[in-house]
Amino acid sequence: MNATYRLQLRPGFGFAEVRTLLPYLRRLGISHLYLSPITEARPGSLHGYDVVDHSRIREELGGAQGFSDLQQEARALGLALILDFVPNHADAGPTSFRWQDVLAYGPHSPYARYFDVQWDPLKPELKGKILLPFLGRPYGDALDGGEITLAYHGGRFYAAYHAHRFALSPATYADILDAARPLAREEAIDLAETVRAYRLLSPSQREALEALRPRLEDLAARIPLDRVLEQFTGERLHALLDQQFWRLAHWKTAGHEINYRRFFYVNELVALRVEDNDVFAEIHGLMGALVAEDGVEGVRVDHVDGLFDPHTYLERLRRVGARRIWVEKILAPDEILPEAWDVEGTTGYDFLNDAMGVLTWPGGEIPLDQIYRRFVPRTPPYPVEVYRSKLLVMRHHLAGELFRLAYDLDRISEADYHTRDFSFEALREAIAEVVAALPRYRTYLPHDRDQAMEVLRVAIHQGRQRHPAGEPSIFEFILRVLLGEVRPDLREAAMVWTGRFQQYASVVMAKGVEDTAFYRYFRLAALNEVGGDPRRFALPAEAFHSRARFRSLRRPHTLLTTATHDHKRGEDTRMRLIALAELSEAWRRTLRLLAPLVRRYGGERGPSPADMYLFFQTLAALWEGSHRGDLADRLLAYMHKAAREAKLHTSWLNPDPDYEAAVERFVRGVMDDPRLIRWLGPLARDLARYGFINGLTQVVLKITSPGVPDFYQGSEFLDLSLVDPDNRRPVDFQCRRLVLDEIEPLIQEPDAQVLQRMLAAGDERLKLYCIARLLRLRQQQPGPFRGSYQPLAVQGPGAEHFLAYAREGEAHVVLVVVPRFPATMDARRGFTSARVLLPAALVREAPTEVLSGRVLHVPEHLDPTGLPLPWAVFLTRRSVD
């Protein structure tokens, strides 16, 4: 594999449009197209993760024929495909036929086992029903307001609420058809017989009920059913709805009463029980057929931590025939993939954070901390924010799931006289404390027991400390259940509870940390990235080398990404922001200059200091090179989302219009103020300049480090995007094709002087040049990139400003030298005499510096400041003893 290129498919950008990109991507050096989900999704979906049918290729993208055409054309050009697969959940919408069948037949549906529904919830009124929290206001208000109506289509009756459709139980059709009697004439006998037939059947007699559909369709063609359905309002409609296998509710009830597992807490995405053999077989049928074909080389598993048993799932997926598997797994900074997982690696967030960390100047931590705390004086420490955020999510958004965990654990405790005195409330509080203390997404019991015990013991200890009033033995009981150390007759229940606990913990981490705490603490916003930890300000070079060497030995085909459809900030946005660590004094001065804007547009009725601090960081990073026409709108949309995610002054659950209006006044006021460009401009230009160097360093690291470089659509130009939906905007591929055509002669025959001028101008074409030049090197000389990784020593004053390593193949060696901390290096220019030590055993002849095209005489000690460009990638023959 040379490199992957991620494409976000959507209506209007499907298989046919991707085919037009194939020659461009091939010339760029891409070997694998990495496609967003291709299975049938909710109509109009812009991302494809709301799957309605895993067994069909999405028609809006071109259908099976369109995919086949893409596959054949890609194969002819030597390109393979990687498919993004969604095993965790499906759409809970009107086109999801399995879900609609479950709504119609409840637990009697053959698809009931597909979905993770609790048919015996703790609330008696919901027994045998599914809570559907899709109403925009309380049920009674929506019903009285006429927003809930009845509809008929294709031999089925539905309840309709705006765009939503909820299938009615056929066992209740008789009540509707009875109302049609006054309208029936010659159809009266047929109608009466149909009503009688429906009344004689129970929901468990699904086949017989389905057999009546032709009769109903015939009647619908002869009787004006719309006039019948209009009669069902108020009490009469409520009486009918009350007989269904579901119960409509205000969307705000979901956090406490929902009784189906969701993707995170998205009500429209219902979790699948893929651990069930039949469910696994059916939803992987199409995937198995596709990976068996030549041209589909791998699978990306979406949200692997949401699975009940990821270890077993991945084993089964390999048996389906997937040749290469990557998992979307968010690793904690000190975490590695379980050794037993038979996968190529992750989707690359671990590398993203390593690359950013090694390029962040550690000397900026204390100054930036001081500046932040001066601007936001009452900000809690980050660990406190994490703890509070996770508890908030559990109490308000995932309380129902926590309640169920506590109830099931209470059943286990009641079965043993040693633990039966533990109260339900005490168990619930203890579970919440343990989940809040978990330092990573989840554990993987019953597999990977040693790692799990280490993590759980820390969480148990912290949970007990934070909850001193709780009974200590409860925490030990939780640990024993998780480890399966219970009586033999309780082990099955303990195993199920452990799986549920681990699934729950992953959701709490995702929503509590990445989607809450990350929007509350902004010492250096770039560090608030998926898989990151804002406390880890910088990564020492030694740690970067150690992690790279580990990848080369254990996961040589793991993906190396720096941008995704889920990132918090674009790869070049982050590279500009980390330059603040080197420009802390300039940042301090700029904030002082901006103080009048804070007073004028902020003040007592303005946004919080934390939100204003986030805004100024974001604005400084995006100012240079962004299209000014839509920058204010982009920033406003981002700040509204950030404020809601923080859940402090407004939220998705309880929006505060006054606060959000204050945010808009502030953003618009600052952006329109003529003084802004004078006060912010100098810092923004420096961030753009040094961020450009950082960004190209990141490119070199990604392409030359152990693993497979992954490129997000459009990121071959500067990526100054923010979180979704900003990072999912359409890409101008025609412009990129033209630029590649334009610089092709330079790629073929590099001219150092031209490249130096491009660097001085911050010309984003240089990024495309570096990507194409280095990817072609990987294609032409794959040996070193499949070989070992050896750190190279850098010595002398200023050594911390360089990172160097070798990739060793059997015949050739690639030597890489990149700069770090360019702003600080500029300030110290003339005071560095760093030298990179090049082992003679690696170098046989004068090497070619690939980016500049120059053949250089390199002694044993290389002066990195004397190179044509800040980055050097040498190719040489390996010395043979």
- Quickly count the helices: 35
- Tell me the helix content: 40-55%
- CATH homology group of the largest domain: Maltooligosyl trehalose synthase, domain 2
CATH topology of the largest domain: Maltooligosyl trehalose synthase, domain 2
How many β-strands, per DSSP?
26
Q: What class, by secondary structure content? A: alpha/beta
Q: Which tags fit this structure?
A:
881 residues, alpha/beta, TIM Barrel, Maltooligosyl trehalose synthase, domain 2, Arc Repressor Mutant, subunit A
How does this structure look, described?
The chain is an alpha/beta fold. The chain has five domains: 142 residues, TIM Barrel (Alpha-Beta Barrel); 172 residues, Maltooligosyl trehalose synthase, domain 2, CATH 3.30.1590.10; 153 residues, Maltooligosyl trehalose synthase, domain 4 (Arc Repressor Mutant, subunit A, Orthogonal Bundle), CATH 1.10.10.470; 127 residues, no CATH class; 96 residues, Sandwich (Immunoglobulin-like). The strands form seven sheets. The chain has an eight-stranded parallel sheet with strand order 16-15-14-5-2-1-18-17. A five-stranded antiparallel sheet has the order 19-21-22-26-24. The protein has a three-stranded antiparallel sheet with strand order 6-13-12, with no helix packed on it. α1 links the parallel β1 and β2. The two termini are 31 Å apart.
Task: Give a short synopsis of this structure.
The chain is an alpha/beta fold and 881 residues long. The chain has 35 helices and 26 strands.
